[in-house]
Design a protein that fits this description.
This protein has about 110 residues and is α+β, with helices and mostly antiparallel strands. The protein is built from 2 helices and 4 strands; from the N terminus they run βαββαβ. The termini are far apart. This is DUF3574 domain-containing protein. It comes from Micromonospora tarensis.
Length: about 110
């Protein structure tokens, strides 16, 4: 089965969430991402957050999932529920259909 590389991003730059609520939202999304990857033989390649002193609060996860419509639909449904539960307008879901590796000798 082939795999899809997905980037999931959340933010609180509009300050809709208190710091405590933002922390809970982050933990809930992180849990969902890791559970989906672990349960479906995927992998979380990384997760990042904005700097603590940044004016923007954001978090991003890069993960690899099997290209399975049910796995992807289940994770999207869970993320939609988290967005709804935390009063967020959306969670970004970006699929990287192709990865290009640029070597040190490559020139444009």
């Amino acid at each position: 089965m082939s795999a899809a590389v997905v980037y999931i991003s959340i933010g609180n730059s509009d300050d809709k969430l208190s710091q405590a609520a933002w922390s809970e939202f982050y933990k809930a999304v992180s849990h969902a991402v890791h559970e989906a990857a672990n349960a479906q033989f995927g992998a979380v390649h990384g997760q990042w957050v904005s700097e603590p002193v940044s004016a923007w609060q954001n978090a991003c996860w890069a993960l690899q999932l099997p290209v399975d419509i049910n796995v992807i639909a289940d994770l999207k449904d869970e993320l939609a529920g988290l967005a709804r539960g935390f009063g967020q307008e959306s969670i970004a879901w970006a699929v990287a259909p192709e990865t290009e590796f640029i070597g040190p000798g490559d020139e444009l």
